[in-house]
Design a protein that fits this description.
The complex is a heterodimer of chains A (308) and B (526). Chain A has 15 helices and no strands. Chain A has 308 residues and is mostly helical. Chain A starts with a helix and ends with a helix. Helices cover 27% and strands 22% of the residues of chain B. Classes of the chains: A mainly alpha (308), B alpha+beta (526). Chain B: Belongs to the bacterial solute-binding protein 5 family.
Chain lengths: 308, 526
């Protein structure tokens, strides 16, 4: 198992390099110039040259990439061109907000997804099943941006239950968590439902019924336990999306997380910040996938056996 | 089973409901203010190094000179000033008894230490004309100039020339304005969470407010929290639900809503923004000045003001905002709606009306590409402009670009016509957008004209005094308008929305924008 983890970690190195090239290239190839945001009205062309040289933007792209990559490998994410502060500082301030939202959304989607999936499976093809599956599907297909505003209208404006926005209080976290979490809830509920239905048809379940065990006990203690294996796999794969799944939702709810920072920096073409944000989001997905694979291997003896 | 699931759901629901918090401004002596969306993300309260400064900055740092709504200059930390006849020196008498938040005195040495701190920063251009600062006595300084700078008072009134405490500035280095911000303003910084909020607490010693405000003493609110909300809808809903007390800039889409709400009040001041249509003078058919003039006269500014902006704001007929003295130009140079003349000019230029309402010449229809940015307000405005152009036989094909990328599109020089806006309150914006050495962007019109360059040089570098500068820029402005590379459209107002049950504000504002002059008069509602 340790050998497997080590091999997977080694594989991350070329993936990381490829991702860094893609991120750097895309950012520098899209139209836009951060110097436009720095030049004050009245400043002359020579001022543009001075600022361009100051940030090394006059160097060939390959050289700029190498300077950036070598900095990143040494833990230096550079200095924001427009924001004029170390990128690491900006990320350090934004990351806790995104992590809090992402983790709570994951917990929300896990809890409600499993509960709803179990209820739907136990009421297969009945009204409750169709209502739950239809409801979560509807919720998950709504764009986060729109759903967020809808929730604000209902729960903040009409009912006055939660603050419209902010990140100071726990109550301000509820609506963003529901907005982000609904997408995951639908996925978890569907996987749980299907896995429960499949597990319920296995021979050992029939045997338990034949032995006279109560159906509720069979479903919760035996069927659900087997059904959770694919659910845990799905959840572990979603770990990587904790940071990246809430970019627009953060803007709607005025949460100063990575998403807000990314959008602001994209609008300003603040290359070092955009690159760092995207790299962190990509790393989160890569590590999340690795963790998911390891958990899956740890849970399923067949995979462990196949890995040797 | 069902009971246990119901119990679980109920418990979760109850726990979520229990997380409801107090409204943020439950304390009578605290006001919660939302910054304008274009001020969101300011990374530091550092007027020397910062490239973006929000309104809270003006509450921390005072300036030597204050500006009123008519762009006149008034004393603030400088009690009086005198410009040498040849423009090569400025002498400032400083206010006495002023102290910084850290107790350090504000005096002539402060200015001597402060000006050199700009060297090497992005804002160095503000003091580039100053050769050196001489201390004449404890409260008098003289700026010895490299060359005359009639724009000096404008620069000194800029937010970027709020005066920080030089010793703290040097000692804190990159942390200045992040962990600590030391000025002489009516509030001092208590905390700053970038992208989230800034909390300011009252400077109890403050007695040197600008005479432009009713209150020159300590502020009436003990604490101010400036929140950052980028999304317009969210900001408006916060105001409506009482989550915040003031919106510094009500989004234009929500101005009618704020007017309608009983507990909300809208205070408007003339802004620094101007919306306009620009034509590329190097692209057919706009190489013909008659076509440019016809297109300019086809724009019905009043109709746009009434129908798109509900009559809030001003119809624009010059390229400069109306508060500037250089906008006071001769009537014949103002560009106003005149469809008859527009049609006559197009006829004269050989463009005959076709059966489909689009003019033709040599078998070619009068079709132009009309560029704009993707924001909803611009799209809506451009569609109306398109319809107004069509009314005189010009067919505009709208192309929208992401607002972050459109500048690079302009640099290609391929644009024919565009609807856009700028935010600036100095006449040098004419130089910025029509200077021959900035073709593509910012000179989107690709306007190159020897006479304009002559007038531009006189305005930019040939003026020795403020009065001379105004005269030179007025002449330059008039000449550019006479060549019709542009058609002014609309001048928005800044709409400050506030909750009348929480705060009170004077009915009129004597400031060029929302700054400490306005907010120091804000008091808890009775």
């Amino acid at each position: 198992m340790l050998g497997y983890i080590f091999r997977r970690l080694l594989l991350l190195v070329p993936v990381f390099l490829a991702v860094s090239v893609v991120i750097f290239s895309i950012i520098h190839l899209i139209p836009g110039d951060p110097i436009d945001n720095l030049l004050k009205i009245g400043s002359g062309p020579e001022q543009r040259e001075i600022i361009t040289a100051r940030y090394g933007l006059d160097k060939p792209l390959v050289v700029q990439y190498w300077i950036w990559l070598s900095g990143v490998l040494q833990g230096d994410l550079g200095t924001a061109i427009v924001a004029r502060r170390p990128v690491a500082d900006l990320i350090a301030q934004a990351l806790p907000h995104s992590l809090t939202l992402g983790l709570c959304a994951l917990a929300f989607s896990t809890t409600f997804g499993i509960v709803l999936g179990v209820i739907a499976a136990l009421n297969r093809d009945k009204f409750a099943d169709q209502a739950i599956m239809g409801g979560v599907l509807l919720g998950s297909t709504m764009p986060g941006f729109w759903l967020g505003l809808l929730l604000i209208l209902v729960f903040s404006v009409w009912l006055g239950m939660f603050p419209v926005s902010g990140a100071r209080t726990w109550s301000a976290l509820v609506l963003p968590v529901v907005t982000v979490g609904l997408g995951g809830t639908a996925l978890v509920a569907r996987v749980t439902r299907v896995a429960m239905i499949e597990a319920a048809q296995r021979d050992f379940v029939m045997l338990l019924h034949a032995k006279g065990m109560r159906p509720l006990r069979i479903n919760l203690r035996h069927v659900l336990r087997h059904a959770l294996i694919p659910v845990v796999t799905i959840l572990s794969l979603r770990i990587g999306w904790i940071l990246g799944g809430a970019v627009t939702v953060e803007v709607v709810f005025a949460r100063p997380g990575l998403g807000t920072l990314l959008i602001k920096s994209l609008n300003q073409h603040d290359y070092p910040v955009v690159q760092a944000c995207l790299l962190i989001l990509a790393m989160a997905v890569m590590l999340g996938t690795l963790i998911g694979d390891v958990i899956q291997a740890a849970m399923d003896p067949r995979i462990r056996a196949a890995l040797g | 089973m069902n009971r246990s699931i119901r119990g679980c759901l109920l418990a979760t629901g109850v726990s979520l409901a229990a997380m409801v918090s107090m409204a943020p401004s439950v304390f009578a002596q605290e006001a919660v203010i939302v910054l304008a969306s274009n001020e969101v993300g300011q990374p530091m309260y550092n007027p020397i190094k910062g490239t973006l400064l929000n309104t809270a900055n003006s509450m921390i740092y005072d300036r030597l000179v204050a500006q009123d709504a008519e762009r006149g200059y008034h004393p603030h930390l400088a009690e009086s000033w005198e410009e040498a006849e040849d423009g090569m020196a400025w002498t400032f008498k400083l206010k006495q008894g002023v102290t910084f938040h850290n107790g350090e005195p504000f005096n002539a040495q402060t200015i001597v230490d402060w000006i050199p701190l700009f060297e090497g920063s992005e804002n160095a251009y503000l003091v580039a004309a100053i050769e050196k600062v001489e201390k004449l006595d404890e409260h008098t300084v003289r700026f010895v100039m490299k060359h005359p700078d009639p724009n000096m008072l404008y620069n000194l009134a800029s937010a970027f020339m709020g005066v920080p405490e030089p010793k703290a500035f040097v000692a804190l280095g990159d942390d200045f304005g992040v962990t600590e911000a030391v000025g002489t303003g009516p509030y001092r910084m208590e905390s700053f969470d970038i992208g989230l909020e800034t909390v300011l607490v009252r400077n109890e010693d403050y007695t040197w407010g600008t005479p432009l405000a009713e209150n020159t003493g300590p502020a009436k609110f003990e604490r101010l929290t400036f929140r950052e909300i980028a999304e317009d809808s969210t900001a408006y809903l916060e105001l409506r639900t009482g989550g915040v007390d003031v919106l510094l800039s009500v989004p234009s889409d929500f101005l009618p809503e704020v007017k309608q709400e009983d507990d909300l009040k809208l205070l408007t001041i003339q802004g620094r923004e101007l919306t306009y249509m620009v034509m590329n003078v190097t692209k057919e058919p706009f190489t013909d000045i008659n076509v440019r003039q016809a297109a300019a006269l086809a724009i019905n500014q009043q109709e746009i003001l009434d129908n798109i902006y509900n009559g809030v704001g001003l119809a624009a007929d010059t390229f400069l905002i109306s508060a500037l003295p250089e906008a006071k130009i001769a009537d014949e140079h103002r560009i106003s709606y005149d469809p008859d003349k527009a049609n006559a000019l197009l006829e004269e230029a050989g463009w005959k009306m076709g059966p489909d309402g689009v003019r033709m010449k040599d078998g070619k229809p009068l079709e132009v590409a009309l560029w704009t940015q993707s924001d909803s307000t611009f799209r809506r405005l451009t569609e109306v402009v398109q319809a107004q152009l069509k009314a005189v036989g010009i067919s505009g094909q709208i192309s929208t670009f992401d607002s972050a990328m459109i500048r690079d599109q302009y640099k290609s020089g391929e644009q024919q016509m565009a609807v856009r806006s700028y935010i600036w309150d100095n006449a040098d914006i004419v130089d910025w957008f029509f200077g021959a050495d900035r073709l593509g962007y910012p000179n989107i019109s690709m306007f190159v004209d020897p006479k304009a360059e002559e007038l531009r040089a006189a305005a930019m570098t040939g003026s020795k005094s403020s009065a001379e500068r105004v005269a030179n820029f007025t002449a330059y402005h008039e000449y550019v308008l006479s060549q019709f590379p542009v058609s002014p459209i609309y001048q928005p107002v800044i709409g400050l929305g506030y909750n009348t049950t929480r705060v009170s504000l004077p009915d009129s504002i004597n400031a060029p924008d929302i700054n400490s002059t306005v907010l120091i008069d804000m008091a808890p509602a009775e």
